[in-house]
Design brief:
The chain is α+β, with helices and mostly antiparallel strands. It contains 3 helices and 5 strands. Strands 1-2-3-5-4 form a 5-stranded antiparallel sheet. The chain starts with a helix and ends with a helix.
Length: 123
């Protein structure tokens, strides 16, 4: 399988890891649309949300509930969008959830380097 997220999970491709446990890895998006754009990726390959079992669904939401407020607090975001693509909009065919901080200002795109954001969030 030539899945970029599977390679990231295996450590074959480097990533900026914000959180990791036995089921998921939370990483900074390599092409962020906003400052703090992160991805929750299951370690097991699931093509899309239709393949997820209830245990992994629950776990992903639990991680989102932990990571979302933390990202918002550290970056002073006003809100957070949770996004899951499906079908033609799903560019990587490995289920993942986007965590997208919203700042309520003109800061609607990534304006800081990934290194700057990672140093803030990794604490």
């Amino acid at each position: 399988m030539d899945c970029i997220f599977c390679k990231i999970i295996k450590g074959e491709i480097p990533s900026k890891v914000l959180y990791e446990d036995e089921l998921v890895k939370v990483i900074m998006d390599v092409n962020p649309t906003v400052n703090g754009h992160a991805l929750i990726i299951p370690k097991k390959h699931y093509t899309d949300y239709l393949e997820l079992d209830q245990n992994i669904i629950t776990h992903i939401w639990d991680v989102a509930k932990k990571m979302g407020p933390s990202i918002m607090d550290k970056l002073k975001a006003k809100s957070l969008t949770l996004l899951v693509n499906f079908g033609d909009d799903q560019q990587v065919k490995h289920f993942h959830m986007h965590l997208l901080p919203n700042f309520g200002t003109m800061e609607s795109k990534a304006t800081k380097t990934s290194e700057e954001i990672f140093s803030i969030l990794k604490d």
